[in-house]
Amino acid sequence: MEEVLAYPAKWWNEAVLVWLVVAVVIYAVTALPGIYFIVKYRFKPGEREIGDQEKHGHWGLEALWTIVPTIVVLVLATYSFAVFKKQRTVPEGAMTIKVTGFMWGWQVEYLDDKGNTVKTVVTAYNPTSYEVPEEQKIVVPAGKPIKVLLTSMDVIHAFYVMPAKIVEDAVPGRITYLWFQINKPGEYWVFCREFCGTGHSHMFAKLKVVPPEQFALWLKGETELAKRSNDI
Question: What pTM did the predictor assign?
């Protein structure tokens, strides 16, 4: 069985496929016959220049193309709400971090069960490079849900976890949230997805996903984590 790289990306991928299939079916049912009738019954001089005025529709067809689209819309709405609920419901046992955006970087606080900060990582703004020093990478354990509490020091930013396909605004004076889970160790991009000034294009971070035991050592100040995790 193929391992899922990240959540909630798995559900978004499935939702895109569902909507694509529905869109193609609707197109096939409506547009293709429409094109056929346009060609078949196009205007020709001397033929059927006066329309059939005695035809006033068919109640069965009227009911069909009213009821069927209504059912399709209700099914898609129910399915989409179920996906949205899964995306917004943080799983049990999630680890919590607090991310504060600022022009143009991120401050990441690792919180314990009582909400106390046990470790802090701050990314620095670098307008000339996309390289991220090891000490500025956001380290998280693989296979564990991560709840992210979001806020901002200045303007509105947006925290986008690329492999998880999840984004949420970081708003000054408010706490918003998202959650994600990445199952495969590696390094992944995090971007700001809300234009926030001249340094917006360089407001990024690297998410370093490591095995849980290595994360526990890093959280305690283990200095060899970077060397070991680079060998993954």
Answer: 0.80
